[in-house]
Amino acid sequence: MEERNRIFALLFFVISTSFLQLLTASDYAIFYESFDEPFDGRWILSDKDEYNGVWKHAKSEGHEDYGLLVSEKARKYAIVKELNDAVSLKDESVVLQFETRLQNGLECGGAYIKYLRPQEAGWKPKEFDNDSPYSIMFGPDKCGATNKVHFIFKHKNPKSGEYVEHHLKFPPSIPSDKLSHVYTAILKPDNELQILIDGEENKKANFLSSDDFEPSLIPPKTIPDPEDKKPVDWDEREKIPDPNAVKPDDWDEDAPLEIVDEEAEKPEGWLDDEPEEVDDPEATKPEDWDDEEDGEWEAPKIANPTCEAAPGCGEWKRPMKKNPAYKGKWHAPLIENPAFKGIWKPQDIPNPDYFELKKPDFEPIAAIGIEIWTMQDGILFDNILIAKDDKIAASYRETTWKPKFLVEKEKQKEEDSTTESSGLASIQKKVFDLLYKIADIPFLKAYKLKIHELIEKGESQPNLTVGILVAVVVIVLSIFLRVVFGGKKTPARVVETDTPATEASTSQGDGENEENKEEETSKAPRRRVKRDN
Fold first, then answer.
1. pTM (2 decimals)?
2. Dihedral angle sign, alpha carbons of residues 145, 148, 154, 160
3. CA 370 to CA 366: how far, in whole Å?
4. Is 213 within 8 Å of 152 (Cβ atoms)?
5. Helix axes 402-439 and 448-460, enclosed angle (nearest 10)
6. Is the pLDDT of residue 505 over 60?
7. What residues form the membrane-spanning segments (predicted)?
8. What gap in Å lies between CA 154 and CA 162, rounded to an integer?
């Protein structure tokens, strides 16, 4: 009774701690969507005709937890959720986190989220589409050679006024399984970006570094002058033909590459009067052949069988050989070009769009949108979070994602184990089928019954497969060696895997008895062996 009370107390403590942890985290979460309730009325579907994919409020496979489900293949999807207040990405940390589960895998499609700018930037929820302005795009994308977790941010150039997309270089790849995974992007005030997958850091970058983003957030100080033109007399040839070179007098440009080998002799036995091909004597004219419509029928040709034993048939001709006098077309040798000036390139000028920046000037986030095109269904979005501290995001990972992931991972291990077992069973069946065929070989006739007994034992005890295979190989080799080197034709002794060696061996002194046993075995009726297909 006391033990049961202790267990209940421990469970109560764990559940209470998790609940309080999540409750405390909720107080500091800027935005959180669990999809525990239907999204109708809270999320807005795009009215654009091209976005005809149907979103569903559905359970994650094997769980009671709900999410936002991509329900149809080969469709475009667009849905958006407006935030109560815009989220600033300046001066303090911001954490973007969400879960996705690719329940049917992902061959070609996206599973990312767009963090949209305020509607003053020129978009409306009902008209949400690919061109709607966003501040950050983050999440999995895969198609063809593309397999990465995107992180793209749009930044306004203060000189030109244009918004430029900056893509994270060398982003992490997407997990290739069908389990729930949580993606986290941590934007820090010191310009650092961290990308986590399942709580583990997979990428670290600096927003101001040209090594981490393409194109670089800060433009180059200089650019090639677009107005600069290459001078007409600019010579980029490093080497030129020697103008003083003269073709040698003995250089014959007309000499052929190959000539007839005059030293070749016709092989002895060459059949000059035999054609290389003859009419197929077994071919017959088709019954529906019409000479008037199809023309005169001719039998198809086959290789002349008379020529098979001869070195060749038909008219013999001397073979060709490489012409030792061949030199080809003459070209003057190359020399250094005295007028060479190098490869021309325009001169650099100050970049009119250059600016200096100590921190990115991110646009605020006013809405969360999912705008994707995918060939797969079964993509499930869940637990979308915006927070100010990674500890908050970590608490959500611990309480919402991790329990599901552990269950899914354990189930996957069981499925993988079952697959491996069935694969092994398939291999064993092929081995036994091969052994049955070996037993049917004529010179093993006297041993067929024994081999069948071994195979049946292996089929009933699959762990003996290797031993059975070795035993049959021993039998075959023993008989083969007797046939090749001669000797007394006595049945080979078979060492069974579950029989001690002393019982397997017999008295070798009574040769007459062994011959009698062999005769009795050969006369005994063969047992019909049932085999499962």
1. 0.63
2. negative
3. 14
4. no
5. 170
6. no
7. 464-485
8. 10
- The pLDDT tens digits of the residues spanning 107-118 come to 999 999 999 999
CA torsion, ordered 376, 382, 388, 392, to nearest 10 deg: -130
Report the SS3 class of residue 340.
coil
Count of C-beta atoms within a 10 Å radius of residue 227: 8
> Contact at 8 Å (CB) between 234 and 187?
no
Residue 300's nearest CA partner among 288, 284, 316, 312 is 284
The whole-number average pLDDT for the span 3-27 is: 48
Contact 113/403 with Cβ under 8 angstroms? no
DSSP 383-398: EEEEES-HHHHHHHII
Summarised one tens digit per residue, pLDDT across range 65-77 is 999 999 999 999 9
Q: What does the alpha-carbon distance between residue 37 and residue 34 come to, in Å, rounded to a whole number?
A: 8
Report the amino acid identity of residue 498: D
Can you tell me the distance from the alpha carbon of 98 to that of 67, in angstroms, rounded to the nearest whole number? Answer: 11
The pLDDT assigned to 228 comes to: 96
Sequence-ordered list of residues with C-beta below 8 angstroms from that of 297, at least 6 positions apart, any chain: 285, 286, 289, 291
Task: Take residue 396 and report the two structure tokens written for it.
Answer: 């959500």
Q: Out of 205-209, 240-244, 360-364, 464-468, which region has the weakest mean confidence (pLDDT)?
A: 464-468
User: Do 11 and 389 touch, CB atoms closer than 8 A?
Assistant: no
* Largest interatomic CA distance in the chain: 115
Average pLDDT rounded to a whole number, residues 257-262: 95
Angle, helix 465-485 to helix 448-460, in steps of 10 degrees: 160
Per-residue pLDDT at 271: 94
The values of phi and psi at residue 64, to 5°, are -95, 5
pLDDT in tens, 154-186: 999 998 999 999 999 999 999 999 999 999 999
Residue 370, classified by CB atoms within 10 Å of its CB into exposed (0-12), middle (13-18) or buried (19+), is: buried
Residue 434: band (very low, low, confident or very high) from pLDDT cuts 50, 70, 90: confident
Secondary structure (3-state) at 365 = strand
